[in-house]
Write a structure and sequence with these properties.
The structure is a single chain. This protein is α/β, with parallel strands linked by helices. Helices cover about 25% and strands about 30% of the residues. α1 packs across α5. The protein starts with 13 loop residues before the first strand and ends with a helix. The protein binds cytidine-5'-triphosphate and calcium ion. The site of cytidine-5'-triphosphate has 13 residues, from α3 and β9. In the N-terminal section; belongs to the HFCD (homo-oligomeric flavin containing Cys decarboxylase) superfamily. In the C-terminal section; belongs to the PPC synthetase family.
């Protein structure tokens, strides 16, 4: 079901997938970032293209080759990702937010490289909340559009996931456990696909392509 040609249930559909992790500038050479590699988002894009979809991949700071047949838009910060996702979303049947979007950014990025001083051993950096792109997508959703979120949790994965699904108002939320050696940069992933209708599908540890295929199965059902 994963390989090209085995199913084309997304033919004629336009999907937008975000991937990677945003970087929030502190000064011209430094940023606040996260451990997302982009592998899960790229797997989602690849599998969707193989199943016939027209795919726009909004990639934040990934070091991965552009998947064949996928239109890639590169972004850095959460605000750039917001712009790119909102530009592509109105024409999309499906939007999947697999990216790790920074919750906060520095209130202002310094124009020059910040220097150490003798006077102070601390450097406070004030942060401001970033817009919640997924929540904005839900508010602006076109009729029939399917919106999917991802949530990485370190603990109480299902409880946090169920609450987050309800709070965000998306159709599907894929939750998985993360930690030091779990998920980030790894070729494998496991998770649970929570649906707004209440169904919960557990995806055992497998490749990120396999998890992606399971997500598209659920999406295809919702589109049908
Ligand atoms: N997300 C987003 N914009 C943000 C933060 C998150 O679009 N500013 C999206 C992510 O891409 C993901 C989903 O929201 O699909 C859940 O992200 P997560 O960080 O788990 O949720 P938060 O609401 O930020 O909650 P938490 O406090 O647990 O980080
Ligand atoms: Ca967050």
């Amino acid at each position: 079901r994963i390989l090209a040609g085995t199913t084309s249930d997304l033919a004629g559909r336009h999907v937008v997938v975000s991937a990677g992790g945003t970087r929030e500038p502190i000064d011209p050479v430094r940023f606040i970032g996260n451990r997302s590699s982009g592998l899960q988002g790229y797997a989602l894009a690849k599998v969707a293209a193989a199943r016939g979809a027209k795919v726009t991949l909004v990639a934040a700071n990934t070091a991965l080759p552009d998947p064949a047949g996928v239109s890639v838009v590169r972004v850095g910060s959460a605000l750039e990702m917001r712009e790119a996702v909102h530009a592509a979303a109105p024409a999309a049947d499906v939007v999947v937010m697999a990216a790790a979007v920074a919750d906060f950014r520095p209130v202002s990025a310094a124009g020059q490289k910040i220097k150490k001083t003798e006077e102070s051993d601390t450097l406070p950096i004030e942060l401001v909340k970033n817009p919640d792109i997924l929540a904005e997508l839900v508010v602006q959703r076109a009729s029939g559009q399917v919106i999917v979120g991802f949530a990485a949790e370190t603990d109480n994965v299902l409880e946090h996931g169920r609450a987050k699904l309800a709070r965000k108002g998306c159709d599907l939320l894929v939750v998985n456990q993360v930690g030091e050696n779990l998920t980030f940069g790894a070729p494998d992933n496991a998770g649970v696909i929570l649906s707004a209708t209440g169904s919960e599908r557990e995806i055992p540890l497998g490749t990120k392509e396999e998890l992606a295929a399971a997500v598209w199965d659920e999406v295809a059902t919702l589109l049908a």
